[in-house]
Amino acid sequence: MKKIVFILTAVLSFVFATNSQNASQAEITFEKSTFDFGDIKQGQVVNAVFKFKNTGKEPLILSNVSTTCGCTVPSWPKDPIAPGKSAEISATFNSAGKMGQQNKVITIFSNAKNGQAQVSIVCNVLPADAPATTPQNQTAPKN
Q1: Cβ-based neighbours of 19, under 8 Å, separated by 6 or more
Q2: How big is the CA angle at 49 (ends 105 and 100), to the nearest 5 degrees?
Q3: Beta strand ranges found along the chain (DSSP E)
Q4: How many CA atoms lie within 13 A of 35 on its CB side?
Q5: Is 12 within 8 Å of 62 (Cβ atoms)?
Q6: Nearby residues of 87 by Cβ (< 8 Å), 6 or more positions away
Q7: 84: which of 2, 9, 16, 102 lies 20 to 30 Å off by Cα?
Q8: Backbone CA torsion sign across 72, 78, 83, 86
Q9: pTM, whole model, 2 decimals?
């Protein structure tokens, strides 16, 4: 009987400890997770700025930010983001050599309790000689 009580106590302690740790972890919340640039000309470069906030209770540390191809280059804060503070991840997409619908996924690796996060740049790349619909080196509008 003592063994059962001991095991039950140990299991309940573990469950409560795990729940309390999750409640105190960092959490990343994006203002906007997708930037749609619509039609762009082949060779055009666009830049998206993904604003986010640490909505958790511990400092948020971004360990890495990766992209689906070398045509998209991210930059991100290397210092911890305190609880309640905001920061930005910037991603530049170069459409040289691309054509048609593009969906460039950026994966954010961090200590956030919500695990890996993903944001994306979406556009339709038209031939270079097509009429321009957006200016060269466009930056996504800030909302």
Answers
A1: none
A2: 45
A3: 28-30, 34-41, 45-54, 62-67, 72-75, 86-94, 100-110, 117-126, 138-139
A4: 23
A5: no
A6: 51, 52, 54, 76, 77, 81
A7: 16
A8: negative
A9: 0.76
